[in-house]
Design a protein that fits this description.
Elements: H1 2-15, E1 29-39, H2 44-49, E2 52-62, E3 68-78, H3 85-93, H4 96-106
Antiparallel strand pairs: 1-2, 2-3
Length: 109
């Protein structure tokens, strides 16, 4: 597995082009990328979720006046979840009967 990861990193490092050949000028340029992060959390986060992975993508544009506009999004997931307390609130107050009562109150004529 380590050998495959090393070969992929080596391969992608030779085929990427990250610089433009422009002498002494400021130009606008778009950029895109993907990212992966391995997180070894500590404390409560480690107890609840264990080892975490993060996968994301980003895209943006740098203007000729050196302003940067961009979007960045990530998805974080772990190998275990030991905390279900955040679901208790949703399951009790947003049950099917509670939603029906709410809709009846909202759409009464």
């Amino acid at each position: 597995m380590k050998r495959i990861l090393f070969l992929c990193t080596l391969f992608f490092s030779f085929i990427t082009f990250s610089q433009r050949n422009v002498a002494d000028t400021i130009i606008g340029t778009p950029y895109v990328g993907v990212q992966y992060t391995a997180v070894f959390p500590g404390g409560d986060l480690a107890d609840r979720y264990g080892f975490l992975n993060q996968i994301g993508a980003f895209a943006g544009y740098k203007t000729a006046k050196n302003w940067i506009y961009g979007l960045d999004g990530n998805f974080i997931f772990g190998n275990r979840i030991n905390d279900n307390s955040f679901l208790d609130k949703w399951s009790s107050c947003y049950s099917a009967s509670a939603i029906k009562r709410f809709l009846r109150k909202c759409y009464r004529r």
